[in-house]
Each structure stands twice: as C-alpha cells, then as structure tokens.
Design goal:
CATH superfamily of the largest domain: SGNH hydrolase
Distance between the termini: 67 Å
Radius of gyration: 25 Å
CATH topology of the largest domain: Rossmann fold
CATH class of the largest domain: Alpha Beta
Number of domains: 2
CATH architecture of the largest domain: 3-Layer(aba) Sandwich
Length: 562
C-alpha cells in the first residue's frame, strides 16, 4: 500500500508515528470498515447550535498558522462525520471522513483530542445554523415558527444512526455539544425564558432518541466578543439562565470559553465569532469537559516542588505580580515557537530557581502550590513572565528568592477590576486577585520566609479600547485599583508598572488610552508607564517574540527603578 502524500507531512509539521499508523491502517482497511472490528461500540457525539458552532469566520487554510494544531488539517479516515450546516447548503448526505469544512467548528479538535485518550471509535453528527434562537428555531413545540431546526436535526440524527445500523456498526449516543444563545441573549423578551426553553429542548431530544441519560455540554457565550461589551448586562443575565439549567440537571456540564482566542475586526471592534484559533481551542475545551466527566483525561504531571523551596531558610523573597488580560495572558504567544529562537528556547523549560503561582483565564487554569516558572497554559501559550523571571534571576542577588504571582482573565474589561465590585458577580476580579495574592504571600511567610510584594505589572485595556466610555475611564479605573491594592496590602510604596497598548495593535482609541495612563501616572507616586512602541507585534497581539520582549522591558523597568 502507498501511503497518501497528505498524511506524511503538513506545512513542515511531521505527523506523529501513532497518527501516521492509525490513518494508514484506516486507508488500508477502508473508510468505516475498521469500526466493525472494534471491540467497543462507536461513541456518537451531536454538535449543535448557531454561528459559533457552525464555525463562522474560522478558515481551514489558516490552521497551519497555529503550531499547536497543524495536524488537524488532515482528514480523519478513522472518524465518521455526518453534517447539515446552514439551510442545507452544506450537507454530507451520509457519513464521510471528518475534516475541517470551509468554515469549521469545534468538532475537528474535539475529535483529535478525545481520540488521544480513549480506545473506542468516534462519530460526530453536526447540525448548526447561524442567527438562531431556542425560543423559536430550536423549539420542538413551535413547528410553525422559525426554521424548525429541532425537527431537521432530529431527522439528521435518526438517518445517520440508521446508516450505522445498516452497516453493522454498533453505536452509543454519548453526548450533545451545544454552543448557542447569542440571539436569545440579545432580546430582553427572550433571554428570561432561555432556561425553560433549553430544558424543554434537552428533555425532548432525550425522549425522542430514547436516550434519557444523554449528557449535554453547554458552551459559554464568550465575554471576549462583542456580546461582552455592547450587551454586557444581557450577557450576565444570560449566563445566569445557563446556570439555572446546570443547577437543575446533573447531566448538563458547563464549558468555559472566555479564555479562548477570539477574533477582532479590522476596526478594532471585538468580533462576533471565535475565528480560526478560537475554534481550534474550543474543540479542546469541549474535549476536556467530556474527558474529565468520563475520567479519561490524563493527569498532568505534578509541577510543584513537592517539598522544600529552593530558597535559603528564613531568606528574603521578592514577590512580583503580573496581571491583566489578553497580552498578559499570552494570546498568540506560542510555546512551540520558542524552539525557533536560539537565544530564548530555554524559556520553554522550567526555571527551577524562580517560584511561580498562577490563575489564568479567569480561573480556568490554576496552580495548587508553588511551581518552577515555566509554560503552563493548556492552550500552548505563554505570557511575559518567562523572560521577565529569567532576566530578574540573572541580575538580582542569588541569595534572594524571586516569586511571580500571575492573575489574568483575557475576557475581562475595566469594570471587572473595580475594587468596589461590579455586575455580573462572577466577573468581580479585584477581590479574587487580592485573595490569590494574599494566599501566596501568607504561604511564604508561614514557611518562614521574609516575603514582600515588590512590584505589580499590569497590561489591560485591549477589550476596553473599542468602547468609548470604557476607553475614557481606563486610567481612572487603573488608579482606583492601584490605590486600593496599596491600601489593602498596607504598603503605599508598592511600585506599579503599566505597559501601554502597542501602536500596531488593531484596537481603536489607543492614543487616548495611553495618554490617559501617562497623565494619571504623572500625579501618582511610583507608577511607571512603559512604552511598547519598539516591541515586535503581530496582527492582534505581541505574539511570541513581542511577548518575550515585553517581559524583558518589564524587568528592565524594575531594575532601573530599584
């Protein structure tokens, strides 16, 4: 047998031997025939929803731009795929190999990730249409209103399952992956009824499929998109509606998405859709939720020191706080690209002599103890902390400890960091930051160290610049949390470093935001505004090289002031 050329290599990224062997076997046996040989039934997953489930603005040709996902452009002969997209303009008319469609959704990386952790075969049925509502389009009891998507989806599922039976393939309905709600959320007459409507939909599908135990996974409507800005109050109320569903049904599960990449329009406006990178990441988020539920997620190695910290007894530990949103979290900075930078590839390895604690993505990824500084983001990203820590460790006294506390939420906006709190309650980040920092500081003191917060490094505002009132208040809000943090920690001398928005970033109102920060800093002691003009920058964010340079600039600013 000749192995097809498309499974050998893609965009310079050689596929794993396991992946090659699996796909080559499927080609040899014949598409779908290997499922007959499986000792376990094929698990069938249903993907449904509206535009962000369709995959609007996600482009298959862009996948090779993201090193963590390059293999996923390859069609999967070992995974069955049946779909109906939009008004039927894209329809498989039976089972086909899974591959990214012209616009693809989370099904691609979901299947890729799940197949790495389980031994049973996978099949995916997808039905998604943009701009639809639970109130009408997906309502099984409203056949004369909307697009009658429930009946069309039910027919697609039944036809697809019947074909499996006809082919002698045993199957089991495993779960529904659901991302929908933007249009219900926009209508103040509809969103108060969302929980009732979704519960009815879930119950009806379980009944019609004779699958009373069918699990349902609810994807979060991202707070990073336009929904989180122009419709902030509605989105908060809609999130409460989702929680009502979760609280009332133990077989429903929440899938957070606000930490994932999200597209930006050319005007600097937050987008309506995740885009290519965000869809790739969302598939992994759904996979993680599923694998955790069935207990198949491989346990990550314990990164903690598992004992004594590498600092002399009773020694001094300088604590540095890194906080903010998109660029501080590290969106578009890829660990996989560090190997291409000969003088910085060591940053991909743990820095055992720098302590690290973190809460990333609004609490999606959180450390349980001190770890050596290193890449930890499950998305394969990193922030400026890697180069920042390396620079400080090389230039500060060796007998002194360095501890970095990182607290980020890339979907946050200015009001979320308000010390006085703000609605919705799950986005009140200042108090969470304070508690996280205090816990880290107290832990070091309880271990006998002399611990002190030396500096706070802040990069935020990306999600605020588009919206005029937020851009205008950015500097005021920044001063409020600075004053409050100094007061709450009992140290008015804590140095604060605010990094500017880069001039090449896509956001609007950048000059106004940066000018406001500089004016604020001129009247507040020990506040330094760092220019980012000379740093490398990509289409949306600093990217791999720019993020490294940002960490260097932060370290240099601290060392100059010290």
């Amino acid at each position: 047998m000749v192995t097809p050329s498309w499974i050998r290599q893609t965009n310079g990224s050689v596929l794993s031997e396991f992946r090659l062997a699996t796909i080559a076997l499927m080609c040899a046996v014949g598409f779908g025939e290997s499922l007959l040989q499986s000792a376990e039934p094929t698990r069938v997953f249903i993907f449904a929803g509206q535009s962000n489930m369709v995959g609007a603005d996600a482009k298959a040709e862009e996948i090779p731009e993201f090193p963590h996902f390059r293999d996923t452009v390859i069609p999967r002969e070992d995974i069955l795929f049946s779909y109906r997209i939009g008004n039927g303009d894209e329809i498989s008319k039976g089972w086909v190999p899974l591959r990214p469609l012209k616009a693809f959704g989370p099904e691609v990386t979901f299947a890729d990730e799940v197949s790495k952790h389980v031994s049973f075969p996978i099949a995916i049925i997808k039905s998604a249409v943009g701009g639809t509502t639970v109130a009408f389009d997906w309502n099984p009891d409203a056949p004369d209103r909307g697009q009658q998507l429930y009946l069309k989806t039910l027919q697609l599922i039944r036809d697809s399952l019947r074909e499996l039976t006809d082919r002698g393939i045993a199957y089991k309905l495993e779960g529904v992956m659901w991302h929908q709600g933007e249009n219900d959320m926009l209508d103040r007459m509809l969103y108060p009824k969302y929980a009732v409507g979704l519960n009815q939909l879930i119950a009806r599908l379980r009944s019609d499929l004779s699958a009373p135990e069918l699990e349902w996974y609810l994807g979060e409507v991202s707070e990073k998109g336009i929904w989180g800005m122009d419709h902030r109050a509605n989105l908060g109320a809609f999130r409460t509606q989702q929680q009502h569903v979760l609280d009332g049904d133990a077989r429903t599960h929440f899938v957070p998405t606000s930490h994932l990449a999200f597209e930006v329009m050319g005007s600097g406006q937050p987008h309506y859709h995740f885009g290519t990178q965000g869809q790739l990441q969302m598939g992994q988020a759904f996979a993680k939720a599923y694998l955790q539920r069935i207990g198949a997620l491989k346990t990550s190695p314990d990164r903690s020191y598992q004992g004594k910290l590498p600092i002399a007894a009773n020694g001094v530990v300088r604590i540095f706080v890194l906080a903010g949103q998109r660029n501080m979290e590290g969106e578009d900075a890829h660990v996989a690209e560090l190997a291409q930078l000969s003088d910085r590839k060591a940053l991909a390895q743990p820095q055992t002599n720098v302590l690290f604690r973190y809460s990333l993505g609004g609490g999606v990824t959180v450390s349980s103890d001190w770890e050596p500084l290193g890449p930890v983001d499950e998305l394969g990203n990193f922030g400026p902390e890697l180069s920042f820590g390396a620079q400080l460790r090389a230039r500060l006294p060796k007998e002194e400890g360095i501890a970095i506390v990182k607290f980020t939420h890339s979907g946050a906006q200015g009001p979320d960091w308000a010390p006085q709190g703000n609605e919705p309650s799950h986005r009140q980040l200042y108090q969470k930051l304070l508690a996280f920092l205090r816990a880290a500081e107290n832990d070091l003191k309880e271990r006998g160290y002399v611990a002190k917060v030396e500096g706070v490094f802040w990069h935020t505002g990306e999600n605020d610049t588009y919206f005029g009132p937020y851009a205008q208040n950015n500097a005021t809000w920044t001063q409020q949390w600075i004053d409050r943090l100094r007061s709450d920690l009992g140290d008015p001398s804590i140095a604060c470093f605010i990094t500017e928005q880069h001039k090449n970033s896509p956001w609007v109102n950048i000059d106004n935001v940066n000018t406001g920060l500089r004016e604020m800093a001129s009247g507040v002691p020990r506040v330094t505004i760092l220019s980012t003009e000379g740093l490398s920058h990509g289409r949306k964010h600093f990217g791999t090289l720019g993020t490294i340079q940002l960490g260097d600039a932060m370290a240099e600013a601290y060392l100059r002031q010290k």
